[in-house]
Write a structure and sequence with these properties.
- The chain has 143 residues and is an all-beta fold.
- The protein has one helix at residues 60-63; strands at residues 2-8, 11-21, 24-29, 32-37, 75-78, 83-88, 95-96, 101-107, 110-115, 120-125, 132-133, 138-142.
- It folds into 2 domains: 2-37, no CATH class; 75-142, Beta Barrel (OB fold (Dihydrolipoamide Acetyltransferase, E2P)), CATH 2.40.50.
- Helices cover 3% and strands 48% of the residues.
- It has a 4-stranded antiparallel sheet, with no helix packed on it. Strands 5-12-10-7 form a 4-stranded antiparallel sheet, with no helix packed on it. The protein has a 4-stranded antiparallel sheet with strand order 9-8-6-11, with no helix packed on it.
- β1 and β2 form a beta hairpin.
- The protein is rod-shaped.
Length: 143
């Protein structure tokens, strides 16, 4: 921890404080270890010691939660950002798979692909090329 050099009655002592435990200091003087009782009241730290508990590992059932969508309800595919529609690749009645590209839009001077979030059939297409859309406008509905 800390090293000190003392001269007592002309004799030189190299002292290293190794640690404190309650009111006992463990010190090493010229290579020999001593336990020294400290009479002065020690200042206790007001900062609490945090004890972190390792969170439990998820069970196999919890780690494989399936992502399900109701096949009977329509899902609205919304505009992620305000922008302009460049191309529409689907029309009502088309079957689409999850991850399939539905349309391309320009937002913030970049082309963005809008993908299907589920398998299904296109119910409505609410946009056409060149149309400006706001964020969260419904672009396509999939049933």
């Amino acid at each position: 921890m800390k090293k000190f050099s003392f001269v007592i009655n002309g004799n030189s002592y190299d002292v290293e404080v190794l640690g404190f435990e309650e009111n006992i200091a463990k010190v090493e003087v010229n290579g020999t270890q001593y336990n020294v009782e400290v009479q002065k009241d020690l200042k206790m730290s007001k900062t609490p010691t945090l004890v972190r508990v390792e969170p439990p590992k998820p069970t196999s059932k919890e780690s494989k939660i399936p992502r399900t969508f109701s096949q009977t309800t329509n899902m609205a595919i919304k505009a992620p950002l305000p922008g302009t529609i460049i191309t529409v690749l689907v029309k009502p009645g088309d079957k689409v798979a999850m991850g399939q590209k539905l349309l391309t839009m320009e937002a913030m001077k970049m082309e963005n692909n809008v993908l299907s979030e589920k398998d299904g059939v296109v119910k409505t297409v609410n946009v056409k090329p060149g149309q400006a859309v706001a964020q969260n406008d419904v672009l396509v509905e999939i049933g």
